Amino acid sequence: MAAECDVEGLEALGTTVLQLNTELAKIQRQWSRANRESRRSEAKLGKPAHCDASTETDKRRRLEEVLAVEVERSRRQRHPLCLLIADLDHFGQINERWGHEAGAEVLRDFAALLREHSRQGDLVVQSGGKRFVVLLPKTPLEPAVVDAERIRQQLEWRSILSLHGPVTASFGVAMRAEGEGAEDLLRRAGQALYRSKREGRNRVTQSIASGQIAAPHVSSC
What is the CA radius of gyration of the chain? Predict the structure, then answer.
């Protein structure tokens, strides 16, 4: 009788182990399928899951590629091409006082504001840290300056409601001059940005090349 019980117990144990192995194999198949689907989704999105998409902006390489194409198109078709560089003011103080998570939230909000004012065909790029570049094909200087000033004012107004204290940005705007390449256009926009910083921040400065007419009510260099 004891031997029969032992046999029955072993058979029951074997059945339980078999069921557990079956469930384990099922879970492994489900995990493998989910993993494959995740990899396919990442491939469709063109970026892995670990990529930082906090500002949803294109990479610096994308800026260089598109800028080169747009400069050549501007030269060939004689269309205006503007470049806007925006840099958040005193951004380090936000990180120091409120933490890096708050700083990341400010970056996301600022990137969203830039995209709100972008047209189809414009390109918004986080150029590094707290700096963003907006490429504006087929846009003359004055509308580009007006857009920059509108963004500056809206950011200043939003910062009144911010939990992180006042948030402002400085801007530099440049329009491609005849015969000018990508590097010179970037350089002039950067110089205009530095002028905004030197003159007190939270302002727009335009770079005026030879033969260009400055937009009114905005500093020039």
Answer: 28
What does the alpha-carbon distance between residue 153 and residue 159 come to, in Å, rounded to a whole number? 10
For 87-139, how does the pLDDT look when each residue is reduced to its tens digit (9 = 90+)?
999 988 888 888 888 888 889 989 999 999 988 888 898 887 789 999 999 99
Structure token digits, residue 171: 């801007």
Contact 163, 48 (CB under 8 A): no
CA 55, 57, 61: angle at the middle one, nearest 5?
A: 135
Three-class DSSP labels, the chain: CHHHHHHHHHHHHHHHHHHHHHHHHHHHHHHHHHHHHHHHHHHHHCCCCCCCCCCCCECHHHHHHHHHHHHHHHHHHCCCEEEEEEEECCHHHHHHHHCHHHHHHHHHHHHHHHHHCCCCCCEEEEEECCEEEEEEECCCHHHHHHHHHHHHHHHHHHHHCCCCCCCCEEEEEEECCCCCCHHHHHHHHHHHHHHHHHCCCCCEEEECCCCCCCCCCCEEC
pTM: predicted TM-score of the whole model, two decimal places: 0.71
